[in-house]
Amino acid sequence: MSFVTGVGLTSYGKHDGLSSLDLMSNAAELAIADAGLKRSEINGILCGYSTVSPHIMLATVFAEHFGIRPAYAHAVQVGGATGLAMTMLAHHLVDAGVVRHVLVVGGENRLTGQSRDASIQALAQVGHPDYEVPLGPTIPAYYGLVATRYMHEYGVTQEDLAEFAVLMRKHALTHPGAQFHEPITVADVMASKPVAVPLKLLDCCPVSDGGAAFVISREATSDRRVRVRGCAQAHTHQHVTAAPALSELGAEIAIARAKQASGIAISDIRYAAVYDSFTITLAMLLEDLGLAKRGEAAARVRAGHFSRNGAMPLNTHGGLLSYGHCGVGGAMAHLVETHLQMTGRAGNRQVRDASVALLHGDGGVLSSHVSMFLERVR
Questions:
Q1: In contact, 320 and 330? CB cutoff 8 Å
Q2: Does residue 106 lie in a domain region?
Q3: pTM for the full model?
């Protein structure tokens, strides 16, 4: 058993003068204070990777920078799934009695610390070095290929995909830390600059500076008792040219394993936090996870199903698409927001009931998946 005992999140956007280690430290300090702990009580650390400040020993570099000497330190990298993968590892570590309190931390100054060309080059390396990278595709190009196939198979339109960008922006408007606070419409998405057909600029998450952290503990440290009920992973491929059929991707495998591990059904879920690097990512994952039928997720968005006051509130902070995306820390903001919702601390974003939550992370080009259930314990 493990509990999420504290969370910390910086604003996302532009943070001039702050390094990746600085942003991680700011978030970590918030998370430890939120857990009611001291730095000296943290005896395990899990750290995400950084493309701006790569290092073969980033976890211990951060520990030194932050001023702690953990008994266990580990760096993890499975793309956008890294945040939840670290949480899953922390869950197993404290459950096995290896450590008592694990600090999970990620963050980067990608917006101010990395040029556009360097960012494109770094992220393009998810492609196959012989069969994909030499042809010049970027991450949006890979997802554009996926989107084209998905739209062909399920009759989804570009306007359908735009609905997800509009929803995430609507949610971001109420969060002071979000990168974007200007409302958008489907027409705005359609009129935005083409990036990788069929994806427009507003179909894509922004580049951000920011940091996120949380503490996973063997026991609750306050009356805010949120525990990890069950989690699982699936890794079906790395390169898009080796990907299975759209109906056989890893999200379905991961959620099935997580449901078995937790004993929780989709009908039990009251809040969802789902990876949304692109509108196509969110559309596909919602359907793969069983939160909508094939090709029908956009219709559910239009009907208000995933709105703050809807039947299944989703990414109420604005997600990657509008809160922002700073590498590993980007998706970690989903868990921070989930914890705030589950503990009644989301302010004007608070939903009616977040007692059971589903979180899902995606790394690569729908390559690595982590599904996780959290539950509030009275």
A1: yes
A2: yes
A3: 0.97
